[in-house]
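[RESIDUES AND BACKBONE]
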Amino acid sequence: MDAQQILDSDEFKKCAEFHGHVCPGLSIGYKAAKLAMDRLGEARPDDEEIVAIVETNACSADAVQVLTGCTFGKGNFICKDYGKMVLTLLSRKTGLGIRVAMRLGAFSPDERHIELLGKVMSGEAGEEETKQFSELHLQRITDVLGMPDDDLFVVRTVQTNLPAKAIIEPSEPCFKCGEPTMRTKLETSNGERVCRGCIDHPLC
């Protein structure tokens, strides 16, 4: 598919609806997820058959959740906030892993686009600047979606330990705040079982 066909596709529209807007980052995540799923030889699963590990908490991560079906709630969507456009997909069925990383220099920043983005987000952009930003923004999105995968990403097969499937544990009250907390998430502090929130913020 060309860039316009992707923009018009139901899959991409679902990503945009989930994320809230269309942007270059979402487009990168879309392409990375599609490529990884294809190389992994997997269809979108119903449950926890695939594990996704993203290395950024930015826009691209939302497209990964939509296309792979991996979510925080199922325990098979893991974010390691390294600030890198990297996605690793793991198959529980085959044990195979595919790592898709943004190629160095593949999508260099456009200084004018970044300048206008700052003005639009701060509400300082005038009508003409807003129009120019919209045009540049769409062009950047189209550029990403139209790029050959090999020009945009470095792909390699990986092996790593698969995380355990999601486990539901009984809750117990935290000694400090009294709130019910998963038993395995409580920590021992001064001989008492305390939630991590109270350990991190002892004044709460």
Summary: The chain has a mean pLDDT of 90.
